[in-house]
Amino acid sequence: MPEPPNPVAERVAVPAGTTCATALKAAGLPSSGPEAIVVVRAPDDSLKDLTWIPDVDTDVEPVPMFNPDGLYVLRHSAAHVLAQAVQDLFPEAKLGIGPPIENAFYYDFDVETPFNPEDLNRIEARMKEIIKSGQRFQRRVFSSADEARTELASEPYKLELIDDTSGVNRTELMEIGEGELTIYDNVDRRTGETCWSDLCRGPHLPSTKMIYGARLLRSAAAYWRGSEKNPQLQRIYGTAWPTRNELNEHLQRLEEAAKRDHRRIGEDLDLFTFSAEIGRGLPLWMPNGTIIQDELEEWARQTERRLGYQRVSTPHITKDALYYLSGHLPYYQDDLYAPIDIEGEQYYLRPMNCPHHHMVYRARPRSYRELPFKIAEYGTVYRYERSGQLYGIMRTRGFTQNDAHIYCTLDQAKDQFLEVMRMHDDYYRALGITDFYMVLALRDPANTDKYHDDEQMWQDAERITVEAMKESNIPYVEDPGGAAHYGPKVDFMFKTVTGKPYAASTNQVDLYTPNRFGLTYTHSDGAEKPVAVIHRAPLGSHERFIGFLTEHFGGAFPVWLAPEQVRVIPIMPDLLDYAYKIRDVVLDAGLRVDVDASDARLNAKIRTAVTRKIPLILVVGRREAEQQAVSVRYRSGDEKSMAVDVFVEHALDLVRSKSLDGAGNLRPTGDKTPGDS
Ligand SMILES: [Zn+2]
Ligand SMILES: [Zn+2]
Predict the structure, then answer these.
(1) Among 135, 234, 293, 401, which one carries the catalytic annotation?
(2) Helices (H) and strands (E) in the chain, counts
(3) Helix, strand or coil, per DSSP, at residue 483
(4) Catalytic hit among 354, 356, 358, 366
(5) Which is catalytic among the residues 253, 262, 535, 612?
(6) Ligand whose nearest atom lies closest to the CA of 158
(7) Is the peptide bond before 372 cis (omega within 30 degrees of 0)?
(8) What values do phi and psi take at 579, rounded to 5?
(9) Which residues pair with 221 in a beta bridge?
(10) 619 C-alpha to center of ligand 1: Å?
């Protein structure tokens, strides 16, 4: 997506007693089109409607529609129009909440029956009428909570929001702010009559007619305020953009994303499945998906072996004592599953592998000669995720991480961390992932109280981390306030082919845990010193990473990862023997191969193989049989004849070099395919 133009930075003076709209008009700023100023930013940093009248002379910052804040207001206003349209057509519908979200908006409704696609079409048509009629969004302040209660007596969910004094998520709600209760009326511009109203803190566009490119996307069930204990509502999602062009571009991106959705491809290619009897968020890896896991794992093993890692295996359930030592108990109890009682002792499913690896380190006295000590494990962990948060294999309740920990001296830590970054770089480039960067999460300078208060430790960890990051030459951005309470961290982020950011792995130079766990080594001078620990998992977890790769390649995995690498298709039934002969040769060379022995016609067989995204299709006819040859059909559609032994060498070479030729054959919009890089 192109970067939006620079925000209109200059400030506009609004005299006391004048509306912002008047002042903006006098300043010659646009009031229609995608450049239109839709709200202003007041000196206290709050956003105000253009109808706002300051009591004293005030400088405000004009916010155009294309600016992120402007888009937010546009989408929030579109959400109001959606709710108005729904209540016009379904007067019995009760309103939940309706916020803008990234690139979109939604509104929740309590209705008897879920909305169907035809309902959505009708609602969208009604929205268009409201937009066209150019209703004004008009702010009104309630004199008291009682007045609000009386006016909203027929909206039970809004009443609940008014009465919710807990303050939980209050600042996140669009409905109520910190101060006075306000309502927004949609007012007919000719008659001045109020057409519809919603409890809301605003601000909003001046008029519905500024919503040029809006579209409803889908509806889905959602619990009131995200809790399974509450009633189930129906959520309608939509998207809105300043221009029709931007709307169409966005819809194209969504279509591309749907084609690449790992849940759909995972089903089509038989990579994984879920079972109601086993439970939500607990994937079953099918034979095809397991092949991809095994290939990635073998790659990681080889890479780690070369860098001096040793493999360990540790248990999935563990006594509470370890988690009191790590601090998971009692502080992170909510992320853990309830304990299992074994002979009066409490055992937990492990949420991470780190404490186990620390115990491996601690099992023997360690000398400086053993450092760096690197241990790796594809370790399975279990974390509590609410069912509403589960997402295919990308967000599950159990997953297996490409985990390792490096125990080293403080002096070695920078080079070790640099080695970890280079490892990420090598892995990602080999997979054709070139659009990645790092995020350095640091302490929030404005709020240092919430961090562990060993200043020397923080400075050491930050210095080592930043030095290694700079030396790696991988671009990075800083995230003040994103650090863990005990140290900085570094996330690797990808921009996916559909433009979404994806957090691939988290890394840390950890100088805090060694003290907590008593992880030391004997220095050459005989003194006991704490080690530094480096946490890393460049390939994430199998679940998340293979989910990502499935979308990245659109299911067209490179030959080395493809579950079925070669498919032999005989042109006629009497060539089946020759086809099996080829299969045996290819199989013995160590490749994954199958024969299509079905009665289907040749074209249908090729189509099936193409749909299964098999990278190398061998079509064999009589001439090939006579010449001990095969005709290779690539994903590109190119065909090439070659002798069987030449083909085997060629295929092995594609595997050994982890070639990306033909991988990711779904061409992303406005981006190059991984194979092009
Ligand atoms: Zn609102
Ligand atoms: Zn760790």
Answers:
(1) 401
(2) 19, 32
(3) coil
(4) 354
(5) 535
(6) 1
(7) yes
(8) -60, -45
(9) 234
(10) 61
Residues listed for the chain: 677
Q: What is the band of 165 on the pLDDT scale with cuts at 50, 70, 90?
A: low
DSSP string, 76-138: HHHHHHHHHHHHHH-TTPEE----EETTEEEEEEE-SS---HHHHHHHHHHHHHHHHHTPEEE
76 catalytic per annotation: no
Burial (CB count within 10 angstroms: exposed 0-12, middle 13-18, buried 19+), residue 134: middle
- Tokens, residue 585: 């040769």
Taking the CA of 105 as reference, the closest ligand is 1
Phi and psi at residue 168, to the nearest 5°: -65, 125
- Centroid of ligand 1 to alpha carbon of 74 (angstroms): 11
Catalytic residue status for 328? no
Cα 557 to averaged position of ligand 2 atoms, centre (Å): 29
Q: Is 489 considered catalytic here?
A: yes
Q: From CA 197, how far away is CA 140, in angstroms rounded?
A: 10
Q: Which ligand is nearest to the CA of 107?
A: 1
Nearest to 647 by CA among 565, 530, 570, 577: 565
Segment 542-554, tens digit of pLDDT: 999 999 999 999 9
Count the Cβ atoms, other than its own, within 10 Å of residue 116: 10
For residue 487, the 8-state DSSP code is B
**Within its chain, how far is the Cα of 89 from the centroid?**
35
* H-only helix segments in 208-286: 244-260, 262-268
Which pLDDT belongs to residue 3?
Answer: 45
Whether 635 sits among the annotated catalytic residues: the reply is: no
Q: Give tens-digit pLDDT for 345-363.
A: 999 999 999 999 999 999 9
Name the closest ligand to CA 80: 1
Residue 250 Cα to ligand 1 midpoint, Å, equals 24
- Whether 264 is catalytic is no
pTM: 0.79
